Amino acid sequence: MPKVAIAGGGLAGLAAAAALGGAGYEVDLYEARPFLGGRATSYPVPASPEEEAETIDNCQHILLRCCVNLLNFYERLGVRNQIRFHREFYFVEPGGRISILRRGRLPAPFHFTGSFLRMHCLDRHDKIGIARALMALRRERTRRKDLDRISMLDWLNQKRQTPHAIDRFWRQVLVSAVNEDLDRMAALHGFQVFWLGFLARADSYEMGVPAVPLAQLYAAEAWEKLGSVRIHLRCAVERIAAEGFTIGGEPITADSYICALPFERLEAVGLEAPRLEHSPITGVHLWFDREITTLPHATLLDRTIQWMFNKNGGRYLQLVVSASRDLTNVSRNDIIDLAVGDLRLFFPRVREARVVKAHVVKEQRATFSAAPETEALRPATATQFPNLFLAGDWTRTGWPATMEGAVRSGYLAAEAVTAAAGSPARFLLPD
Ligand SMILES: Cc1cc2nc3c(=O)[nH]c(=O)nc-3n(C[C@H](O)[C@H](O)[C@H](O)COP(=O)(O)OP(=O)(O)OC[C@H]3O[C@@H](n4cnc5c(N)ncnc54)[C@H](O)[C@@H]3O)c2cc1C
Q1: Mean pLDDT across 128-153
Q2: Which residue of 21, 221, 392, 424 pairs with 229 in a disulfide if CB–CB is 3.0 to 4.6 A?
Q3: CA torsion 396→397→401→406, rounded to 10°?
């Protein structure tokens, strides 16, 4: 079978390797770090001398049921059963009042009607406006040609959304899904999240949370059944060209090559980098001496912390702030204080609890910024060389920077490899 060399062991490179390995190709994947998963990974954090190091995700990663290619990738690795799906979204107001969004008996797109009407955190005007905008989104999705040129906030203002509806509904869902503020996010991406995740099918909004640390999903055992895939850790690719990779000063050759590196690394290996910008995410991990909440997760309204995930009986909470530019220059200690202060407003038990341990992960280069007029800057899979292909969440996948986007890019690159080898295969599943 043809030989393929892949640079980068994030989800894009891994998805390409799994697809090609499954089709019998000889695959060598080179990853610079000592573990797989790239930006969706986990690692042990230093603990106090009396405790063992604890393995944590760099940040909580979630998916929706509409991430069909990501789920297909997990299936290939035999780990799909490690994803737990949740049917409820909990919106918590300062003070602790909870509104639940869940599907009822009506078919899509009306499946949320009952729970939406009962949400306390929005008033009648907010809800009427949101319902009108959702119907407009369905109509305008395929008709409007300017969705990549205007921001989501522009569009919401055109639809006369109330400030509450914008802050407590649209912003709360979209900023975490797209990792960008509404005024910096192309409306195209906001449309896609709401169309695929909330309107197209009644179950597509269900939120998948991995039940194990992320790196465990791509562990060595998973690759054993894909015998023709060889993973090389701690192998930084120094140069990528049509003639092959350079690693440790030595040439590595194959029939085809896939570059699945983050876009900011392209120049360093001799390739042209797209002019994309980054958007940061900050994750805060807090361990308390007692149970803080029984909710499995919640979106927290009107404060800096946007999401809470309950990782261990309410004592270990993972908190997420997407598009966290405002925290860039805030010290880690101040971020911890801010997070505990926010939590006190939502969960009264925090007032009596003691923080046992805390860890802050600031990912300044978390994703590319899905700003208006960015789509044209995202390169497609093919390059100027017939045997070199690009993958990565930043390539033109039709999705914002997500695990699903990364896997789609990997499958597209794998398809391009099979086409170049003269036996085109299909790996990508349609939305
Ligand atoms: C904090 C945070 C939270 C997120 N939350 C979510 C979420 O909830 N849901 C979601 O869907 N997405 C989320 N994302 C986005 C998601 O993690 C990414 O879109 C996806 O993991 C990108 O995968 P990738 O393979 O394209 O890139 P990467 O994961 O960046 O993979 C690139 C790989 O290349 C390796 N590499 C770099 N240079 C070299 C070299 N010279 N040689 C060899 N290897 C090299 C890197 O080490 C890395 O492993 C989040 C991202 C972050 C940072």
Answers
A1: 97
A2: 21
A3: -120
Rounded Cα gap, residues 99 and 263, in angstroms = 39
Distance CA 288, CA 314 (A): 8
- Cβ proximity of 65 and 188 under 8 Å: no
Instruction: Establish whether residue 410 lines the binding site of ligand 1, counting it when its CB lies within 6 angstroms of any ligand atom.
Output: no
Residue bearing tokens 């036996």: 423
Ligand 1 atom nearest to 269, measured from its CA: 41
- Write the DSSP symbol of residue 348: G
By the 8 A CB rule, do 215 and 56 touch?
no
Which pLDDT band holds residue 69 (cuts at 50, 70, 90)? very high
Q: Is the pLDDT of residue 339 over 90?
A: yes
CB count within 10 Å of CB 347 equals 23
Is residue 74 within 8 Å of 80, Cβ to Cβ? yes
Q: Write down the residue that tokens 């906001």 correspond to.
A: 190
User: How does pLDDT run across 9-63, given as a tens digit for each residue?
Assistant: 999 999 999 999 999 999 999 999 999 999 999 988 876 667 778 899 999 999 9
User: Are the C-beta atoms of residues 364 and 140 closer than 8 Å to each other?
Assistant: no
| CB distance 265 to ligand 1 below 6 Å | yes
